[in-house]
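Input record (one chain):
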Amino acid sequence: MHVAIQKIGNKGGILILNKILEDTGLKEHDVVELTSTNQGIFIKKIMPMYKSLDEVFEGYEGIHKCEEWGFGEDVGRETVW
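The corresponding structure, as predicted from the sequence alone:
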């Protein structure tokens, strides 16, 4: 598949066909890393540093046993309640 480099604003760019996006699992707003190699340009998806709450709690079944924490005896003027 061949595509032409196009002027986008002050920069050059290429349009990536939907078929390639689907095959690679890339989608709009994904962050990618571009690396220049002797073969050309390598595009790698960067995994987000932070997950959404839905992703954090994925698979959570609501079962959690709380434990009491002990901080030792009062020292000085603090009060443990």
